[in-house]
Amino acid sequence: MNATPRWLAPEQQAAWDSFIRMQEKLIGRLSRRVQADSRMSPADYLVLAKLTEAGGRLRFMDLAKSVEWEKSRMSHQVGRMTKRGLVTKEECPDDGRGSFIVATPDGYQAIESAAPVHVEHVRRLFIDALTQEELDTLARIANRVLTHMEKQPD
Predict the structure, then answer these.
(1) In the chain, what are the domain boundaries?
(2) Torsion of CA 95, 154, 74, 147, to 10 degrees
(3) Phi, psi of 9 (to 5 degrees)
């Protein structure tokens, strides 16, 4: 016997719908700008940003977890980026089955060229629309949701 669904109240549905529309539109516009400005895919940008923020190398599974991707998706992305010389794969001496993904000099150059333009789009489309107080509130809300999600099973 199935439990009765806990439907959203109209105010909850409105908040959820607004959040989803904002997130989809923002990510869509930023993704199109990254592609147009840098000729990198949004996935390339995301992987290179995570790698360079971490000092240029991450274990494969840590990289996949950091972007919330399945192992197969990360494997295909790393393969495409390796062919273009943006990253390399190195064996992990501690774990014969594990590997490190490492940003190459070309990968560093690509992210260093793309990041300043990307941050200007983030500022124009998102940051400039909000006051500092609103940004602080949004950060607290986002962190609360993230903490809550960590306690929930997938």
Answers:
(1) 34-150
(2) -90
(3) -70, 155
Give pLDDT tens digits for 8-59. Answer: 999 999 999 999 999 999 999 999 999 999 989 999 999 999 999 999 999 9
Cα–Cα dist 141/36, whole Å: 32
Q: At the top level of CATH, which class does the domain 34-150 belong to?
A: mainly alpha
Q: Which letter does DSSP use for residue 58 in this model?
A: E
Length, in residues, of the chain? 154
Helix axes 42-53, 10-38, angle to 10 degrees: 90
Q: What is the dihedral of CA 107, 111, 112, 116, to 10 degrees?
A: 170
Number of continuous H segments (helices) and E segments (strands) in the chain: 6, 3
User: 10 Å Cβ neighbour count for 104?
Assistant: 18
8 A C-beta contact, residue 38 and residue 49? no
